[in-house]
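User: Continuing from earlier, I have the next pair ready.

Assistant: Great, send them over.

User: Here they are, in order.

Assistant: Folding the first of the pair now:
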Amino acid sequence: MVYVIGAGGTSGMPLTSSGIAASGKGCTVNTMSRGPLGAEYVFAQANAAIATYSACHVDTTGKARLIDSSNAYLPGQFAVAIVSCSTGDYAWFQTRGNTRVVCAAATNKNVRLFTSATAGTLDDATSSTQAELLGLRLLASNGASASDAACFLGNVVIAAPVPS
């Protein structure tokens, strides 16, 4: 079943961390929902502490973890944490639409993006161990320190590594 989420949590499905805490789990993990302006979300359980706007991997069992090169290629999907979570918390993670995502210092807009040495943080610099994310576009460059930047999530897929 797909739930529709409005600005105030219409359809009875809370979108904010306070709304989820007040209502309990609310639905099963891996439930997909739609929000305003084409945004899409997946309901998942945090596998560890996750900060707001961190880049995540949601696996096929509905567990969300900070994305890095060790889990990027596992079955599941890319998502962004829209609220901060403690280990075991249930929350909505955004899979499509306009949002923000944590990036390393001096990450430029409109360039290829990769996982980084810091789990949950994306970067425009690559190495042979980093996974490339296709379908994710930064709409603004971030500054001299790691922070979140405006982005658009399309159909984000992880590119297979190029053999060396």
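And the other member of the pair:
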Amino acid sequence: MQRSLSAGRRGQSLLAGALVMVFGFSGCRGPKNAKYGHAPDPDTTRYRLLLRENPVDPREAMHCYAGCQPQPTPRGYLECLMACPGFEITPEEYCAPDEVPPLAACFTARKVPVKAELPAGLVVLEVVGMFAIVIAAHSLCAASTAQCGYETIPPPH
């Protein structure tokens, strides 16, 4: 009796261990961004100009970025950045928290359903069918103080 009970517990332990391995490691599979470890998001597109680590020409990328600052609209600003060397558009990706100047000018555009009124803090780049392509105003301000209506960083409160 003692021997069969011990074998039963051992079998349960093996089964539990196997389940932990199956379910525990299954979360490690699937497509993820290697650098930041997140799954792709089909409703986002990353627009990014690397500055310091620009693969084409870091100096020219920084000059181009500076030349885009006076653009009068967010759409014009983004179009100007698109002409800079090394600018990249990556579907299903979004900006990392550290992708701000002087490292990068980065915007995550999101596809949201068109409603009568969009939430505050969103800048509409364009409308495609029933969806608005928007970026968050705070990410625009992080990349360009000129796009937020002030030329220098405001004093702390």
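Worth noting for the second one:
Residues 10-34, 150-157 have pLDDT under 50 and may be disordered. The longest helix spans residues 2-26.
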